[in-house]
């Protein structure tokens, strides 16, 4: 499981266990205890929803950064290949010029 799923499962399990313990040891009337639990559960759910939204946004940001990084790498690779071809052409021209100079001086 991923860390976010583990965290979510732990959060929900903790909320459930906390609710059961609260019901068992509640000194207040049942209706008051249920209201308190309902409020806490809705608060936990809101926090969980916010956390999931933030994680989704971070995942989208990471995916976008990876895509941009891949584009930069591909562009650098293409430029390097172009420079290599230019250097090979230049070396070929130098070799040709050397041969021409050597042939003309003979």
From TrEMBL:
Keyword field contains Isomerase: no
Coiled coil: 45-100
Keywords: Coiled coil
Repeat in keyword set: no
InterPro entries attached to this UniProt entry: Desiccation-related_membrane (IPR052928), YtxH (IPR024623)
Protein name, as recorded: YtxH domain-containing protein
């Amino acid at each position: 499981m991923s860390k976010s799923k583990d965290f979510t499962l732990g959060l929900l399990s903790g909320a459930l266990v906390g609710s059961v313990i609260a019901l068992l040891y509640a000194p207040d009337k049942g209706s008051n205890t249920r209201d308190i639990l309902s409020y806490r559960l809705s608060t936990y759910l809101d926090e969980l929803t916010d956390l999931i939204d933030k994680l989704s946004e971070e995942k989208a940001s990471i995916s976008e950064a990876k895509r941009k990084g891949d584009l930069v790498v591909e562009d650098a690779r293409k430029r390097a290949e172009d420079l290599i071809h230019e250097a090979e052409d230049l070396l070929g021209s130098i070799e040709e010029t050397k041969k021409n100079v050597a042939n003309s001086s003979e």
